[in-house]
Amino acid sequence: MSEPEGRGVAWTEEPATRDLEYRDTPLRPYVLTGGRVGPADARVGVDTLLKVVPTSMPLPLGATPQLRGLLRLCAGGVLSVAEAAAHLKLPVGVLRILVGDLVKSGHLRAHAGSFDEPGLDLLREVLDGLRDLK
Amino acid sequence: MASGTSSEGGRVPYLPEGVARTAKILVVGDFGVGKTTFIGSASEIAPLRTEEPLTGADDLEHLAGKTTTTVAMDFGRITLNQGLALYLFGTPGQRRFWSMWAGLAEGAVGVLVLVDSRRLAGGFEVLDQLELHVSAPFAVAVNHFPDTPAYTPGRLREALDLLPQTPVVDCNALDRGSVIDTVAALAGHALTARGGQDAP
Fold this sequence. Notes:
The complex is a heterodimer.
Chain A: H1 15-18, E1 22-25, E2 49-52, H2 65-74, E3 79-80, H3 81-88, H4 92-104, E4 108-111, H5 120-132
Antiparallel strand pairs in A: 2-3, 2-4
Helix pairs in contact in A: 2-4, 3-4
Chain B: E1 21-29, H1 35-42, E2 48-53, E3 68-81, E4 84-92, H2 98-105, E5 110-116, H3 124-133, E6 138-143, H4 153-159, E7 168-171, H5 176-193
Parallel strand pairs in B: 1-4, 1-5, 5-6, 6-7
Antiparallel strand pairs in B: 2-3, 3-4
Helix pairs in contact in B: 1-5
């Protein structure tokens, strides 16, 4: 057995692995929301579920391609905000604003999501579910 | 009307009918520690990635001509029963990415700190942040690489300066069973830490 180095010891990042996880980009994603930077609906989180509302109401003529893309994606089934963001290649922050727009216009319903500390019943259900996978 | 395709044209794995509730777990760790592998082993869908700008909304107006730093967030999904889906979100743990994962930890079942015992120091900043700022319960998972030093749990606990109640779990991020066991260990700890009884 060797000795692990202790916490509190100075360390350096390894540049080789860095750019796998973050990078600088000229992209300014909030252009995609028409310049708005929020506030997004506080009840729309990464694991909030999105479901389309059956309606014949068309989107406004000025609706952005991103807004139309999100509605088209959600028409296929239920997805979380994070999944929709990944499929549309948009940051979650941008997606939350788009969701807010579509909820307000009556095209999308947003429900569920973890905001408060989970209750014991939910924790037990998570644990049981994980054990059942085995 | 349903196209069911992503922006790349691939088929989208929608949630099963009936799933109406969600829970989330955070997997935080240093670069290269195996977060994405870990999440991929547990996930029922191919792991997904989003790129999140680090900059806060307030700063956006002053960004003309500047670049934005984006951080990758990898995640996966496990449908636990007919009504409940669990999401695993992976983010790098460095202090400067704190603004990103602090919000993610809110409402989470718990936080899993993935460490590589060859580079324990990579976990220190994460643990400091967790102990100081996060109320969600957390556990440490040591990802085993082929050349991983074999420390006893006691030595690891000492090196990481962990509180006695913080679980330390050995895992193999490549092995689904091992990863599920590790996530279950965190869920069990989260249950007892919040006063519940773990009765398998």
